């Protein structure tokens, strides 16, 4: 991690505190599952979401091992996806960010996710829309601990500004009374994408309509290089938007003119969900501003604001 962080510059660790929300922790009211290919493995897998007790938080079960969805289990160098691993050399689960994004935004605070058929969460259509539909179909209810008690949900709150920067890429958070996200991307070699910014507040309805439908994307001219590195074996025109540097989008139409930028916010929410502990909220109450950020920056930033 130290080597990977070379070149990153940040302010001192933020003043960071947990605040009561006045709401009980939630879990699913029923089990629900979805199956599909994994983006990188290409293998068909199934993720089954099950209710969990208050205080257990979100966690995956893969190869009979439990992998908590916490930043301490995130691998710092995981190309083109977020990977969680239970300790050094332990079981891993890959490409968790879309599912975690939906659970964080919709308030699934405690959940057991059983993964079968591989170690990767199904990509589905490349967005979080099917996960939102699955969660809403199952419904939510107040979670109870082993003693039958409900627990209050806490939320992390940024009390002082903090930022992380590498070259012209950065992630910053400023005190705010509500969650506010501003995100920018820039792909000068692909004019059809170009420079995009998206600004939004965040709640379950905004997420479901404006963020969740945004699909993952890639540059056509980079596909063979990524496949040569053993990545995106399950990627296709059915589960990703593909943009050519010279020819534009190969599989239109887009769901939004700025769909790539919105998808980066989807990823950001999923990665920041790893700040959660014991059924708490993960995404901080703050105005988060990011530009040309990526999964590693999201992970490192979580470490920065979380502390030991």
UniProtKB/TrEMBL annotation:
Pathway: Glycolipid biosynthesis; lipid IV(A) biosynthesis; lipid IV(A) from (3R)-3-hydroxytetradecanoyl-[acyl-carrier-protein] and UDP-N-acetyl-alpha-D-glucosamine: step 2/6. Its cofactor is Zn(2+). It catalyses: a UDP-3-O-[(3R)-3-hydroxyacyl]-N-acetyl-alpha-D-glucosamine + H2O = a UDP-3-O-[(3R)-3-hydroxyacyl]-alpha-D-glucosamine + acetate. It comes from the Eukaryota. Its EC number is 3.5.1.108. GO terms for molecular function: metal ion binding; UDP-3-O-acyl-N-acetylglucosamine deacetylase activity. GO terms for biological process: lipid A biosynthetic process; lipid X metabolic process. GO terms for cellular component: membrane; mitochondrion. The keyword Lipid biosynthesis applies. Pfam families: LpxC. Keywords: Hydrolase, Lipid A biosynthesis, Lipid biosynthesis, Lipid metabolism, Metal-binding, Zinc. The keyword Lipid metabolism applies. InterPro entries: Ribosomal_Su5_D2-typ_SF, UDP-acyl_GlcNac_deAcase, UDP-acyl_GlcNac_deAcase_C, UDP-acyl_N-AcGlcN_deAcase_N. SUPFAM superfamilies: Ribosomal protein S5 domain 2-like. Involved in the biosynthesis of lipid A, a phosphorylated glycolipid that in bacteria anchors the lipopolysaccharide to the outer membrane of the cell. Lipid A-like molecules in plants may serve as structural components of the outer membranes of mitochondria and/or chloroplasts, or may be involved in signal transduction or plant defense responses. Belongs to the LpxC family. This is UDP-3-O-acyl-N-acetylglucosamine deacetylase. The lineage of its organism: Eukaryota, Viridiplantae, Streptophyta, Embryophyta, Tracheophyta.
